[in-house]
Amino acid sequence: MNKEEEIRAAALKLFVEFGFHGTPTSKIAKEAGVANGTLFHYFKTKEDLIVALYNHTKDSLNRHLLETYNAENTLKDKMKNIYVSSLEWGLAHKPEFYFIQQFHFSPHLAKVSSEDIEKQTRLHVELLRAGISENIFKPLPAQLISSILGGHVYGVYQYLISTQLTPEKKAEMIEDTFGLLWAMLTK
Amino acid sequence: MNKEEEIRAAALKLFVEFGFHGTPTSKIAKEAGVANGTLFHYFKTKEDLIVALYNHTKDSLNRHLLETYNAENTLKDKMKNIYVSSLEWGLAHKPEFYFIQQFHFSPHLAKVSSEDIEKQTRLHVELLRAGISENIFKPLPAQLISSILGGHVYGVYQYLISTQLTPEKKAEMIEDTFGLLWAMLTK
DNA sequence: TTATAGATTGACTGATCACTCTATAAAATT
DNA sequence: AATTTTATAGAGTGATCAGTCAATCTATAA
């Protein structure tokens, strides 16, 4: 890891544990093993660091989702892959997943550029559009389908991290809950 | 409003807009129209204020849910009432609803006593238990049902606040989405 | 009327924090 | 080899903030 990565990793760890307020930049630098000034060489301000960390984390998630994407698949399988990959990534990267949610309910969210937002929702939006034009979903507003999907992932995730199931049982739960979701949203 | 309430109202408003970090106690006192010291007369520390505000807000929501509770109703209607009341309260109290979520993804959550947590989930837990013992739900873990329910409310709420629908259309959406949820969870 | 307790004030303080600045080393470019 | 650019360090600074404190006011009880 180079120093920039060290700083990001340290910031993530401390933000999740102590919140944005509770973690001074000095502690981040210390945890990262760099000098105070080095942090500000890579990130102009603390807020810059927070927003950059968010975009970087979202990029990681999106890269993981794209890995399982297969244009040959049916729409249902494409959605299932995204659903499964999202939850798997969340389980394998709990601090990162928590950080994303923490960020969403912070004033820093307003600092994310609209291009970055677009980039991070493109995949979902495309899939939903396809499903609607193929007349697969129940007659509901696209935004509502998207929100319900997000809420479902959120709810199932909360459950999965609150229980100690074997990875196999977790995979099974993810399969089953996708079945519930799909049945709820499609005709 | 007495001074304690003024302080809570000011804190809520500022926390939602600027985050816990971004709002100094001095600004809260000013917004509330009281002296600095008065804030610390009612709340020993800033953290105390944050946690007290959370418990107070949750109490408001719970009181509202209990208003529509009717022991005579069927289980389905009891759940529907809670679902509808939750969303209606959220729409009528956006800052309060946002604050609850913001708090959930903050380190302050750990400071809520287990009694307070129990108090605030009792109603839901009771209903779920009843549904399970009456064999109404699909064979899923109780915790999972609860999490999916929470996720569904969360998702539908995000949709409702992101669109400008008439109150009638919103009520209709709430009805419809309860139907989806109920069909998904029951046999 | 007096005594006591609680409410309210706002100036003050010690600590902390984000960020700067200067110096130096390393790397890249000419 | 000379020069410019980038990386790194860490002491230093001005501002800010949570919380204190002594003084005053208010209300109730004795």
Helix content of chain A: over 70%
How much is the radius of gyration of chain A in Å?
A: 19 Å
What oligomeric state do these chains adopt? Answer: homodimer
Number of helices of chain A: 9
Mean pLDDT of chain A: 96
CATH topology of the largest domain in chain A: Tetracycline Repressor, domain 2
The proportion of residues in beta strands of chain A is: under 5%
Counting structural domains of chain A, the number is 2
Given as residue ranges, the uncertain stretches of chain A (5+ residues, pLDDT < 50) are none
Distance between the termini of chain A: 49 Å
Question: What's this, in brief?
Answer:
The structure is a homodimer of 187-residue chains. Chain A has 187 residues and is mainly alpha-helical. In chain A, 79% of the residues lie in helices and 0% in strands.
What does this structure look like?
2 copies of one chain form a homodimer. Chain A is mainly α and 187 residues long. Chain A folds into 2 domains: 43 residues, Orthogonal Bundle (Arc Repressor Mutant, subunit A), CATH 1.10.10.60; 136 residues, Tetracycline Repressor, domain 2 (Orthogonal Bundle), CATH 1.10.357.10. Chain A is 79% helix and 0% strand. Chain A is built from 9 helices and no strands. The longest helix of chain A is centred in the first third of the chain and has 23 residues. The model of chain A has no long low-confidence stretch (mean pLDDT 96). At the A-B interface, helix 1, helix 6, helix 8 and helix 9 of A face helix 1, helix 6, helix 8 and helix 9 of B. The structure holds a DNA duplex (30 and 30 nucleotides).
